[in-house]
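To: structure desk
From: M.T.
Subject: fold request, one chain
Message: Could you run this one when you get a chance? Sequence is below, nothing fancy, just the single chain.
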Amino acid sequence: MKSICLIFTVLFLTVLFSCEEDKIDYGLGEYYEEIATVLNDSAYLLDANISVVNTNAYRRGEKSPEAGKRVLLMYSYTNMEIPPYDRAVIVHSVSELSTGELKLVGRKDIDSLRADPLRLESIWLGSRYLNMQFYLNFKSEVHSVGLFTDSIGLHKDTVHIYFKHDSNNDPPGYPVHSFLSFNLGKVLGNPEKKKILSVKVKSDNYVDEIYEFVY
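Reply: Done. Structure tokens follow.
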């Protein structure tokens, strides 16, 4: 089942901050940092379903990730109004993230996949995306990850989801910080706040940790 596990390669990002609209104060006012979806060259949709448009001409002139991409967005608010967008912001940095999708496979296939440990820093639900921030012990081999569920529980109140990490037998190296964003919508549809998502992740002490979200 190796081919199932290699959903996408983790893109490593050296990022100094957490996300989920964290406030950061450098003495020049409040900055925010969170994951968003690109709408166009200058606009982004936050996971709270708030659209923001960039008023920073320098940043607008830079090449932006294409529409639909997930990014880590650092910005600050302005007092301007630029309809049809909800808020006008000054974008200070944009970093494209590794993204994947929840995959629907058989339960036996899920059980056959490797689940190497990692150090999870945070995991949260934003709109139809499951976002993760973690550290991998990386040296030289490509690591692969995937998010899986089977069809048995899709129509029940609780959907069981499994995060799988394959280190490809990478020898001990050094911790690398990364973000991931998984689109749940193609399998689960749009959030209706009617289901419980039970997400299993193997932690760095080899314990299966369970995280629950209302979807």
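Reply (cont.): The CA atoms of residues 200 and 210 lie 5 Å apart. Let me know if you need anything else for the meeting.
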